[in-house]
């Protein structure tokens, strides 16, 4: 590795912000924290965008690596040890200075901080901790911070960092132990899951101290969302195993570390990772099918109570016999379908075994997963919206959580027709084949899989082609200007706000 010690701050920023673009985190912050006199910034649960979306929403996080040096040689990674690249590292003070200057200029609302592994995992995690500690104490920054936890780092330094970050994440990278052994020989599933379990245990302890459960945080008071893939982690994890995580005070092994350690009495008053933890999987680099990926996703939600599992379509960057060829197109549409299926798992009461099976392990890429499921279960359709249960309404393509709730409320006051359903947000383009109002369908339609498939795929072919053939794979840059030429459709705008499927 060629480590360059003479780069300017701007040159470092260009290198390390570009190197961070393959780490996915397109989510809202999930953390509320009001402004405070004498401090700078705040955090709003829905106020931070992590990606540059097609509808024009702006990335407002400084998404950057602490360093692109790395001791690992993962075959899929651009920053792997064997690649001949210029390497550089921010000092904690440099990164704090950039974050504050960008915030004051209204460029960003928060920080997304990841890193290659410098020397060893614990040393890297100590540098991340020092950066966050300076931001929270010296610079009094109260904005959103998403920090990566490094597998293999000391549990004590991971715990200390959790009291300073809003969200922490540990990348699974690949879905199976076999895939990790093939493409990332320096990593193991056990080393990745161990800090996940530690963070989960501390989150549970903090949640229980507030008298909350996982279901209360996830669904609030919505009485209709009782059947999901999630179990109440607080009830399944025994108090002994939760308290078994080490809670001793820890002073990081860094220069002037005594002045940076968090006093225990103050530490206990702080929330621990209030926005929860997440993870990321690369798809397309190995041969797992959609069914295997969904099963792993479901297990991760149930096992570690994650807020999100992110999918990252593999972009060929390195030439290797174990990887797809460099001319392989990134599976962007497959990534999109997996995100839609993930939404069904978390909010629609579906399980991985409902959506796919060993006999049919992949989604029809031209259909969204709910349509794909509905076409394989036509025996339960059409659904009569006038008396169907909330759970049955959620299974109808084109009806989401919001519109299903509105239907349940509206039909108590009177009869419903298709024009009323459209006003409630039902996407009739898909729903019309699966519902009746007062015993009648919108149009005379045969309930046949081949016919409905032709109708739905004919409508969606243009959208599918555009998703598979983007003009660019660039993320929003701090140094370039990007302009949208095509405004979003009304339907896409509705999906953005309500997450309708």
TrEMBL record:
SUPFAM superfamilies: Radical SAM enzymes, RuvA domain 2-like
Ranges in coiled-coil conformation: none
A Pfam family that the UniProt record links to this protein: Fer4_12
Matching CDD domains: Radical_SAM
Keyword tags: Iron, Iron-sulfur, Metal-binding, S-adenosyl-L-methionine
Protein name: DNA modification/repair radical SAM protein
Superkingdom to which the source organism belongs: Bacteria
NCBIfam families, alphabetized: rSAM_link_UDG
Family annotation (InterPro entries): Aldolase_TIM, DNA_rSAM_put, Endo/Exo/Phosphatase_dom_1, rSAM, rSAM_sf, RuvA_2-like
């Amino acid at each position: 590795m060629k480590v360059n010690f003479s780069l300017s701050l701007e040159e470092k920023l260009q290198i390390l912000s570009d190197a961070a673009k393959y780490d996915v985190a397109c989510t809202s912050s999930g953390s509320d924290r009001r402004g405070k006199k004498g401090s700078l910034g705040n955090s709003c649960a829905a106020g931070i965008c992590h990606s540059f979306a097609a509808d024009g929403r702006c990335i407002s996080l400084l998404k950057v690596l602490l360093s692109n040096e790395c001791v690992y040689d993962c075959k899929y990674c651009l920053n792997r040890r064997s690649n001949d690249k210029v390497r550089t590292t921010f000092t904690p003070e440099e990164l704090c200075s950039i974050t504050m200057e960008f915030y004051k200029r209204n460029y960003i609302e928060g920080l997304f901080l990841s890193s290659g592994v410098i020397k060893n995992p614990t040393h890297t995690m100590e540098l991340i901790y020092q950066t966050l500690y300076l931001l929270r104490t010296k610079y009094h920054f109260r904005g959103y911070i998403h920090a990566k936890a490094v597998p293999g780092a000391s549990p004590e330094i991971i715990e200390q960092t959790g009291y300073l970050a809003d969200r922490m994440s540990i990348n699974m990278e690949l879905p199976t132990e076999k895939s990790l052994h093939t493409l990332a020989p320096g990593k193991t599933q056990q080393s990745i899951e161990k800090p996940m379990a530690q963070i989960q245990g501390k989150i549970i302890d903090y949640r229980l101290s507030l008298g909350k459960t996982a279901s209360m945080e996830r669904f609030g008071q919505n009485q209709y969302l009782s059947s999901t893939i999630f179990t109440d982690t607080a009830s399944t994890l025994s108090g002994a195993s939760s308290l078994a995580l080490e809670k001793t005070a820890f002073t990081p092994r860094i220069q002037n570390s005594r002045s940076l350690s968090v006093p225990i009495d103050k530490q206990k008053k702080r929330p621990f990772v209030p926005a929860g933890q997440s993870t990321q999987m690369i798809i397309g680099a190995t041969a797992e099918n959609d069914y295997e990926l969904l099963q792993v996703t479901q297990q991760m939600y149930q096992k570690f109570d994650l807020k999100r599992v992110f999918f990252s379509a593999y972009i060929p960057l390195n030439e290797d016999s174990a990887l797809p060829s460099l001319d392989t197109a990134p599976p962007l549409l497959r990534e999109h379908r997996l995100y839609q299926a993930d939404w069904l798992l978390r909010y629609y009461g579906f399980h991985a075994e409902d959506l796919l099976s060993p006999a049919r392990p992949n989604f029809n890429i031209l259909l969204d997963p709910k349509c794909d499921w509905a076409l394989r279960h036509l025996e339960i359709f059409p659904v009569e919206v006038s008396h169907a249960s909330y759970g049955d309404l959620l299974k109808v393509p084109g009806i989401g959580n919001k519109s299903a709730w509105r239907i349940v409320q509206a039909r108590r006051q009177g009869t419903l027709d298709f024009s009323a359903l459209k006003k409630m947000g039902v996407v009739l383009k898909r729903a019309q084949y699966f519902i009746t109002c007062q015993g009648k369908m919108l149009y005379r339609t045969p309930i046949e899989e081949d016919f409905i498939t032709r109708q739905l795929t004919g409508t969606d072919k243009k959208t599918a082609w555009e998703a598979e053939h983007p003009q660019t794979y660039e993320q929003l840059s701090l140094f370039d200007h990007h302009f949208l030429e095509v405004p979003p459709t009304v339907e896409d705008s509705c999906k953005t706000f309500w997450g309708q499927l």
